[in-house]
Fold this sequence. Notes:
Elements: H1 6-24, H2 33-43, H3 50-61, H4 66-88, E1 97-98, E2 101-102, H5 104-107, H6 110-129, H7 137-151, H8 156-165, H9 173-183, H10 185-197, H11 204-231, H12 234-237, H13 243-246, H14 252-256, H15 258-275, H16 284-295
Helix pairs in contact: 1-4, 2-6, 3-4, 3-10, 3-16, 4-6, 4-10, 7-10, 8-9, 10-11, 11-15, 11-16, 15-16
Amino acid sequence: MAPDSFTGWMTHIQQRTEAALECLLPDTRHAPARLHEAMRYVTLGGGKRVRALLVHAAGELVGAATDNLDRLAGAVEMIHAYSLVHDDMPAMDNDTLRRGKPTCHIAFDEATALLSGDALQTLAFEVVASPMPGMEPAIQLAMVQRLAQASGHAGMCGGQGIDLYSVGKALSQPELEYMHLLKTGALIRAAVMLGALAGRPVTTEETDALDHFAKRMGLAFQVVDDVLDCEADTATLGKTAGKDAANDKPTYVSLMGLGSARQFARDLAADAFAALERFGSDADRLKALASYIVARSF
């Protein structure tokens, strides 16, 4: 049984997610061992597992089986890890540090990094499509579709493309929000909806409310990241601090200033909270998680 306190629950889910990934990822004793080693290097032992926490929090809301949520959380974390590997490569952001250790192309090589990202992405879909106890095939198909949309041209890849093409340009707030709704927000929305689809049937109104919550929190997550990029040091972040400003990338801080960006994150969280009112205390995990996301820098 999960602990009652939020911090205890968060640690519990992070540990469950790590254990699930240990089992789902390929064994380094099997060929191609170097590729498998790289996949495990970038996925295990790092990150706050925010997306996995969202899967579980939304899944608890609808009474989903915890073992199924472990698999779904693992799949979402694989997609996230693959995106970080590719984003860090020289053709993209050309970064050397991620989660407090050398990025994959530094620790291994560029070809291995590229392949490990590709392999993590496809493995994630294999995990979601594999049979899960009590799960209807039609529901799993809907999950595959959600995850694919969040990962591709209408999600992370599209957002990353806009980001790359916007270096040195001044974006308006709607343009910046659209970029981050795709780049960061799409996978956060998918994490919530995968959890919500894993349990009891949800009404259209409940689906809309959860999606609105996830949409606002996805933006809030990015705003806080922009603030942290300005305020925190490299050791705290586990990645190179100040990289966005150095690369002349548009951010919420550069657009509206530090104080206004902080307030915008709070406003987004308040709007997200309001979307959960219909669920009452059943949504307490999601609310606590939203508070945690915003409080990372305040």
